[in-house]
Write a structure and sequence with these properties.
Number of domains: 1
Radius of gyration: 22 Å
Distance between the termini: 67 Å
Oligomer: single chain
CATH superfamily: FAD/NAD(P)-binding domain
Helix content: 25-40%
Shape: globular
Length: 414
């Protein structure tokens, strides 16, 4: 009788499941060291998109995130691709006189952050991974299961391939297969809101300014793209209103959008395709187990009103890479729980604090009570007149303060 042979596993130090922004950044940061990294992604490589069309999904990246990507060797690729920046920010309340504005010049910084299309970011990261000789990209490939060995895990992919690694990183999104197989609980609460996204051309130029107006149903943000009259909008609202917005013809949508934004940029001249996605917050009951670590949406999710989701994921990536690199340099077991617990302690508290802050803002600006409206308006205006408070808020929002990994503190990004 002929017996089938079990596939011999390819040996790596780290296997990263998930080839999105967070997973690719982890792989690039660790691949820049002497560690052997397998980068496993379920989706096939994307077909080239029409360069004239803007991606529906964009990220508002902080200065800290740009530094992390530079340290990973990917920022150079972003600079060669289309991207925008925002030097100023304006926030105001539709139901009070409260408003606040920020300017990067107040901190002697060239920008507050950058607006990067998802496609450009993923392409730059993919390009970087292909440059690293000790990174092996496997796509399309999906995780099936794993088996625990004495000092490593033997990971089984759905196509039958096997990968042996001392550490398995789950950066595979909110529906994480790694988290599910590991049996880690995931507490998720919907906001009963959806975010409508679209790219628009406006009558007036955006002047490299990110703008957000708080409406009764949720915030409406205009994020400046590289073209002076082109913006990406994120409109958080009720599911019923989101459905209606998606069903409007283009002319009616343009009119309703301009009115909701108080005509701050004049008429909306053009509007591209629209899409909507559900908003929710979530938190894994733990980030690590022996030889397993979660990062990004696999570990947490927050409301997008301040655009911090991707930035928190990139901070996860940089922190995990730093902890693993230091353990490897000391000759320690990079998959040991005592090593990975340092990453969990470092990031879990920071992420919970940001999650609670975003929840607080959502409830504060979502209230219809007159007293609350007056208080939030007065609070915004008071903060706008207090320069030290504004500078503190700016530094936090830019990722220039807090308990940051070393990669987020690097200089050199203009």
């Amino acid at each position: 009788m002929i017996r089938s042979r079990r596939a011999v596993p390819a040996e790596f130090d780290v296997a990263v499941i998930g080839g999105g922004v967070v997973g690719s950044t982890v792989a690039a940061l660790l691949g820049g060291l002497s560690l052997r990294v397998a980068a496993v992604e379920a989706a096939a490589a994307a077909t080239p998109a029409d360069p004239k069309e803007y991606d529906l999904r964009v990220y508002a990246l902080t200065r800290a995130s740009a530094r992390i990507l530079a340290h990973a060797g990917a920022w150079q690729g972003i600079e060669r691709r289309r991207h925008g920046c925002f030097r100023r920010m304006e926030v105001w309340d539709a139901h009070s006189r409260g408003r606040i504005s920020f300017d990067s010049a107040a901190l002697a910084e060239p920008t507050l952050g950058y607006i990067v299309e998802q496609r450009a970011l993923c392409d730059a990261l993919g390009e970087r991974l292909r440059e690293l000789p000790n990174v092996t990209v496997m796509r399309p490939a999906s995780l099936q299961s794993w088996e625990g060995m004495a000092d490593r895990l033997e990971v089984v992919l759905e196509d039958g391939r096997r990968v042996s690694a001392r550490l398995l990183v789950g950066a595979d999104g909110a529906a994480s297969r790694v988290r599910t197989v590991a049996g880690i609980g995931y507490e998720r609460h919907g906001y009963d809101q959806q975010a409508v996204v679209c790219n628009v051309r406006t009558e007036r130029p955006h002047e490299d300014t990110a703008r957000q107006r708080f409406l009764a149903e949720g915030p409406l943000a205009f994020l400046p793209l590289d073209d002076a009259h082109q913006s990406s909008i994120v409109w958080s609202t009720t599911p019923a209103h989101a459905e209606r917005l998606l069903g409007l013809d283009t002319e009616d949508f343009r009119g309703e959008l301009a009115t909701a934004f108080g005509h701050r940029l004049g008429r909306v001249l053009e509007a591209g395709p629209r899409a909507a996605f559900e908003l929710a917050k979530a938190r894994a009951e733990r980030y690590v187990l022996p030889r397993i670590a979660l990062a990004g949406d696999a570990a947490h999710a927050i409301h997008p009103l301040a655009g911090q989701g991707a930035n928190l994921g990139l901070l996860d990536a940089a922190t995990l890479a730093e902890v693993v690199a230091e353990a490897a340099a000391e000759g320690a077991d990079i998959g040991a729980l005592r090593v990975l617990r340092r990453y969990e302690r470092w990031r879990a508290g920071e992420n919970r604090l940001m999650q609670a802050t975003m929840d607080g803002f959502k409830h504060l600006f979502g209230s219809d009570l007159k007293t609350v409206r007056w208080l939030r308006g007065a609070g915004l205006s008071l903060a706008d007149r207090c320069q030290p408070a504004k500078e503190l808020i700016m530094r936090l929002a830019m990722g220039l303060s807090g308990d940051l990994p070393a990669a987020a503190r690097l200089r050199g990004i203009s």
